[in-house]
Amino acid sequence: MQRIACPERDDWRATAESAGFDFHTIDGERYWDERAYYAFTLEEIERKIEEPTGEIDAMCLELVGHAVDDEKYLRRLKIPEAFWPLISESWHRDDGSLYGRLDLSFDGRSPAKLLEYNADTPTSIFEAAVFQWTWLEQGIERHIIPKRADQFTSIHERLIEAWKKLGGAHHLHLAGMTENTEDAGTLAYLQDAASQAGLKTTLIDIEDIGLQDDGKFVDLDDRAIELAFKLYPWEWMFHDAFGARLRSATTRWIEPPWKAILSNKGILPLLWEMFPNHPNLLPAYFEDDPNAARLGTSFVRKPLYSREGANVALVSAGTTLVEQQGPYGAEGFIRQAMAPLPNFSDQYAVLGSWLVDHTPCGLSIREDENPITGNTSRFVPHAIL
Amino acid sequence: MKRSRRVVLTLMGSAAVGAVSMGLVPRTDCGPGNTTVPGPDGRPYCRPAYGGFGGTPRGFHGHGGHAHGGG
Questions:
Q1: pLDDT at residue number A326
Q2: ipTM for the complex?
Q3: Would you give the end-to-end CA distance of chain A in angstroms?
Q4: Domain boundaries defined on chain A
Q5: Measured between alpha carbons, how far is A140 from A146 in angstroms, rounded to an integer?
Q6: Residue A129 DSSP code
Q7: Contact residues, chain B to chain A, C-beta under 8 Å
Q8: Alpha-carbon gap, residue A351 to A15, rounded angstroms
Q9: Whole-structure pTM value
Q10: Fewer CB within 10 Å, N side or C side of chain B?
Q11: What is the DSSP pairing of strand A172-176 with strand A227-231?
């Protein structure tokens, strides 16, 4: 694994915008950054990223199988009791998952370590699936990267196949916070893939979803929502006004309710309990567990619910070195052993390893001067050399 | 990892962006407590800040001004 500086395409912004990738720059700062790329060997990709990703996902599914009907687990995860049946029923009905992204610490030498699992509402999939592939193709044509370069991504093809499997003959609604440019772009991309799978689709803002007297969720045309993709976290759904109506409605949701277990940082200590010393896991404990003292005075503190690194703190020798501000933490925290991110040219890099329908199929990389990856971290492409 | 692969978009992009990417309208100032959303005619209009699933008022303070459901 190495970071290689390279010239950027002089027309990449226009290329991005013509593809609908309007959030390449956020608040005047680069989000997409192709002034460098990360290079991997095929061995690194296949043995050290792809295989562990499949293994971690399998461990996660085993954990859900244990947790879904076990009050002890659900209480530790602080999942509201009213939603336990919804979660359990979705698991036993085998409601399908479209996608997820594991965030890994990997330096090319030691085994990749799971930092967290974005199991419910991962973004950056358009960049990973489409725009970094465009970069690879144009980079080869323009002699920016070697002609032999390849890339770890079959996300796009797998999404289309997964939509065929999940969608059947249903009309698909895609819901989220559509006024957010990044979320709107993610929804538009997933809608595009669903359309290529033959599904009829409707985009709707999450707050525009209505509820009929018969308990059915409906869109703005009063069409019943049978199948909905939501880019909106389950823990927010639970607490919002219609949360209490979820169980009685007939809508099938993607990601399914059982993903509420896996998007919770509490799975990190639970995985460590179930699979102690697994090479791709870091020691982790609930903060109120006396065993957390085993980590000593240096660890990473994460809220059970958090996104984009918010409220995550790096604690070293008892002193908080770095802390991302944010609104999370009311449900409690976990502590995870420190896994320093590899530093290349003063940039900390985190790998995002993508799964579609539980198949590892792509890689994205975010880098930052800050050791906690946040929503301003830049997306940097990769190549297999 | 297939060098011969073709990634094709059928909806996203300049031809269809207005139809499918509802959030890509430049922001205008609607004042405190309001936000801009695209209207049926494609032009922005103001409405109260985010209501959530079922319209519950939700505050996103402290998230750096980039509140969103993905992560």
A1: 67
A2: 0.81
A3: 10
A4: 2-264+342-384, 283-336
A5: 6
A6: I
A7: 1-3, 5, 7-14, 16-17, 20-24, 35-37, 50-56, 58, 60-64, 66-71
A8: 25
A9: 0.88
A10: N
A11: parallel
